[in-house]
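TASK: fixed-backbone design
INPUT:
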């Protein structure tokens, strides 16, 4: 019987069995590098991130992006339709630079309604980085430069005006500060409470888990709308808008942390019997170290995804409550508060542009959901490999 003298794979050094790396060096990618690679391949997630960044920029620099002073009341300019951006004037001449016409009001002799028509005698060219009304950039630097506008006595209303003659575009940008900051603060508080309770409940189990889960079920059983209506009746009328904002920032998470606690608990239950947790216990690691160094970091990807999906949920809830009049109040403004102008069906039928702030809500919710879906897929970079 002849023996095969060819080398066996078992005699081959392990490093020779590895796939060849470019440059002759082995490349090791970290978890976050794998997550970014998977996230960057999702076009929907990238688009969602750009939508969210755009809304944040408009909210932070609302004065810069607004061509008109959105805090100025001018009853003579109430319910002006959005300005029509034109390239062709009334005489049929084409212009490379876009322009608008000022709008003047006329009274309908039959219905006695105010009708806004364009005054075609004077063109007002749209320009960028225009000097207009004074404001403080970021509340620190005084300036009068605005991203877009028109010179002279022209009036550029991108989304029209409300009943007080205030620019809806500028107020919608300003409202993003309250809506986005409120939803972010509430979501962070809810995630912090829910993840902490879920990790503790899942790790200790037994009687502690039983008590915590019964309390979670009690919290989840509260009806949200009646609770908000009761709180609206209890809140003193002397409270400032900022105090109402703070109360809403902490009541929202109290109603939403329970679901996250359940999800984190189920994940911890599957992790606490794994080899690396048992090894940490055998080496004498304390419960606090196991929770903070091993269990919680392994649930962090799931928590980040829940955070990105919880923010649009709170935005919609705030908009609904403010629309009903039990949320944000003047002098603060939010996207939901702006939608209160649409409660009057007669006004809505005649001035449909007052619904335009709903576009900001739609963009925010869609962008955050796209971003959350991308994060959810990227959080498990080893899937489908």
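OUTPUT:
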């Amino acid at each position: 019987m002849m023996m095969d003298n060819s080398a066996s794979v078992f005699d081959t050094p392990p490093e020779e069995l590895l796939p060849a790396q470019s440059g002759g060096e082995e490349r090791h990618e970290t978890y976050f590098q794998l997550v970014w690679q998977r996230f960057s391949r999702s076009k929907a997630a990238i688009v969602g991130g750009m939508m969210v960044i755009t809304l944040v920029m408009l909210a932070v620099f609302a004065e810069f992006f607004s061509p008109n002073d959105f805090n100025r009341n001018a009853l003579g300019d109430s319910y002006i339709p959005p300005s029509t951006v034109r390239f062709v004037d009334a005489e049929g001449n084409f212009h490379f630079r876009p322009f608008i016409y000022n709008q003047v009001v006329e009274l309908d002799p039959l219905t006695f309604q105010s009708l806004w028509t364009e005054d075609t005698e004077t063109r007002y060219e749209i320009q960028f980085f225009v000097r207009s009304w004074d404001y403080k950039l970021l509340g620190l630097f005084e300036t009068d430069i605005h991203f877009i506008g028109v010179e002279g006595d022209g009036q550029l209303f991108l989304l029209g005006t409300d009943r007080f003659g205030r620019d809806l575009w500028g107020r919608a940008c300003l409202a993003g500060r309250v809506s986005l900051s409120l939803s972010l603060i509430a979501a962070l508080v809810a995630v912090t409470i829910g993840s902490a309770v879920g990790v503790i409940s899942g790790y200790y189990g037994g009687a502690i888990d039983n008590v915590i889960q019964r309390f979670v079920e009690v919290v989840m059983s509260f009806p949200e709308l009646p609770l908000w209506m009761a709180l609206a009746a209890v809140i003193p009328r002397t409270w400032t808008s900022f105090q109402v904002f703070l109360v809403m920032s902490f009541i929202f998470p109290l109603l939403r942390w329970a679901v996250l606690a359940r999800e984190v608990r189920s994940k911890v239950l599957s992790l606490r019997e794994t080899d690396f947790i048992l090894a940490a216990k055998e080496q004498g690691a304390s419960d606090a170290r196991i929770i903070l160094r091993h269990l919680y970091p392994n649930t962090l990807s799931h928590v980040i995804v829940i955070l990105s999906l919880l923010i649009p949920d709170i935005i919609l809830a705030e908009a609904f409550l403010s629309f009903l009049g039990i949320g944000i109040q003047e002098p603060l403004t939010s996207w939901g508060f702006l939608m209160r102008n649409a409660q009057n069906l007669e006004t809505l039928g005649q001035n449909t542009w007052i619904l335009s702030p709903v576009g900001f809500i739609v963009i925010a919710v869609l962008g955050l959901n796209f971003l959350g879906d991308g994060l959810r897929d990227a959080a498990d970079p080893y899937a489908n490999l």
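COMMENT: Residues 67-165 form one domain.
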